[in-house]
Design a protein that fits this description.
alpha+beta; Alpha-Beta Plaits; elongated
């Protein structure tokens, strides 16, 4: 009886191995990302009339500027960038002061946006004054603001009205 079970087990194992060899597992299909492209043609066909897409905003390079003296303002930084890049107006540059949590002397921070064509020039060390720290702006570190009191959780305490105990 024991020999019959051993023989059956061996036969079942060899049969399973034969099946594995005959039918190898099929690898899972990987999803291909669909590549989106944006049209760039300036021509308008007469038959389609005013067939146009949405206007795209100008692409910008964003920089995080830190370790700036407390006396420096947004206008001073704009002036510096406009002068160094030989731009026509200050409207081409966006400079915003970022509030810091740690009040340390001479540690002001700014978010700067310039036209994408000047990105490489602005990322050069020689573009900025000595001692100023700069890097690519990381939008994921920016705190989100909804304009309301931000609670860390969805739980809110019920405030009893004056008429109720």
């Amino acid at each position: 009886m024991q020999k019959d079970l051993d023989l059956e087990t061996r036969l079942a194992n060899t049969y399973a191995q034969q099946l594995k060899r005959a039918f190898p597992p099929v690898p899972e299909r990987q999803e291909k990302k669909i590549k989106c492209q944006i049209g760039t043609s300036k021509e308008m066909s007469v038959s389609t009339g005013e067939f146009q897409g949405r206007r795209m905003k100008e692409k910008r390079g964003w920089i995080f500027l830190s370790r700036v003296k407390d006396t420096v303002t947004e206008d001073i930084i704009k002036q510096h960038i406009v002068q160094r890049l030989n731009l026509n107006s200050k409207e081409e540059v966006i400079v915003q002061n970022i509030e810091t949590y740690h009040k340390v002397k001479d540690n002001k921070c700014f978010q700067i946006g310039v036209s994408f064509q000047f990105k490489d020039t602005v990322y050069e060390n020689s573009f900025w004054p000595t001692g100023v720290l700069f890097s690519r702006y990381n939008f994921s570190l920016q705190p989100c603001s909804t304009g309301t009191n931000q609670n860390k959780t969805n739980f809110q305490l019920a405030v009893p009205s004056q008429g109720q105990p």
